[in-house]
Write a sequence for this structure.
C-alpha cells in the first residue's frame, strides 16, 4: 500500500461530514466526552455541543442561524461568509459568556485555489481599523506546511512560527483543519468552512514562540500516528502525543470520528 493513496484504495464518492468526535482513554478505549455536530440536508452546520460522559451533561452548546451572508452563534458572536460559504470574518467576544467583554474581529483571505493564506486579528474595542497580528499560511502539494504570525504594526516582530509535516504517500479525504494558531475557532472548527483542507495525513507539528528580541522562547511538538479508516477511506481514529496546542481540534491520546455520508 506504500505506493497507493488511501483515496485510490478506498473510493470516496460519498459526501461525508463529521458528526461526532470522541476523545478516548488510551488504555480502555472508552470515550470520556464527545463533540457532536449536526448538519442540515445540504451540509450547513446546524449545531455543535460538547457532551461530558463523566457527568452525563452538556458543557457547551452552540446553535447556528443563517441570514444572507451571516452565520450567527449569538447576538454578539457571528461569522460573515463569502460566496463559497467560507468564513471571511469572525466577530466575537474576549469572553463569550460576558457580553460586556472586549470585542475582537478576525478576517480570513483565500487564494484562487480556495486555501487560507492570510488572517488578521483586530481588537475592535480598542481600534477596529489597525490589526494586532497578521497571519501568513504557506501551502505546498495541497498541504498547509507553515504558519507565521507577526505583529501587524511597528517592526512587525515575528511572534510564532509553525511547521506541519505530512506522510505524502497517504492521501486523506476531507478530514480536519489543522491550524495551530486558530484559538478563536476552537469551539467551531468542526462546523465552519475555512477553505481547502490538507491532502495528506498529518504526522507532526512543530510550533515555536519568539520573544521581543526575535529569539526562540519556547517550542512545542505534537505527533499524529496510528490512523484508522472507515470502509470508504475517511479517518475513523488517530492518536496524538506530545504538546497540546490551543488552536487544534484534538487533545492528546486516541480520538475517534463518526460521519454522516450522503
Amino acid at each position: 500500500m506504500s505506493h497507493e493513496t488511501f483515496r485510490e484504495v478506498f473510493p470516496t464518492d460519498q459526501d461525508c461530514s463529521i458528526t461526532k468526535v470522541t476523545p478516548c482513554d488510551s488504555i480502555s478505549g472508552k470515550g470520556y466526552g464527545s463533540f457532536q455536530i449536526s448538519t442540515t440536508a445540504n451540509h450547513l452546520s446546524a449545531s455543535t455541543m460538547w457532551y461530558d460522559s463523566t457527568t452525563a451533561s452538556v458543557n457547551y452548546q452552540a446553535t447556528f442561524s443563517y441570514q444572507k451572508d451571516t452565520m450567527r452563534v449569538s447576538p454578539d458572536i457571528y461569522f460573515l461568509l463569502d460566496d463559497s460559504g467560507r468564513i471571511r470574518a469572525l466577530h466575537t467576544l474576549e469572553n463569550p459568556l460576558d457580553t460586556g467583554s472586549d470585542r475582537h474581529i478576525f478576517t480570513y483571505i483565500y487564494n484562487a485555489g480556495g486555501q487560507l493564506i492570510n488572517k488578521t486579528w483586530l481588537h475592535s474595542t480598542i481600534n477596529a481599523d489597525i490589526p494586532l497580528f497578521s497571519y501568513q499560511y504557506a501551502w505546498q502539494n495541497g498541504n498547509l506546511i507553515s504558519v507565521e504570525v507577526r505583529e501587524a504594526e511597528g517592526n512587525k516582530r515575528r511572534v510564532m512560527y509553525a511547521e506541519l509535516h505530512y506522510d505524502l504517500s497517504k492521501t486523506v479525504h476531507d478530514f480536519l483543519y489543522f491550524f495551530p494558531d486558530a484559538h478563536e475557532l476552537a469551539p467551531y472548527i468542526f462546523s465552519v468552512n475555512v477553505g481547502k483542507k490538507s491532502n495528506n495525513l498529518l504526522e507532526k507539528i512543530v510550533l515555536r514562540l519568539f520573544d521581543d528580541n526575535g529569539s526562540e522562547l519556547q517550542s512545542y511538538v505534537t505527533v499524529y500516528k496510528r490512523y484508522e479508516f472507515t470502509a470508504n477511506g475517511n479517518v475513523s481514529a488517530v492518536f496524538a502525543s506530545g504538546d497540546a496546542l490551543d488552536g487544534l481540534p484534538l487533545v492528546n491520546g486516541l480520538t475517534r470520528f463518526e460521519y454522516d455520508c450522503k
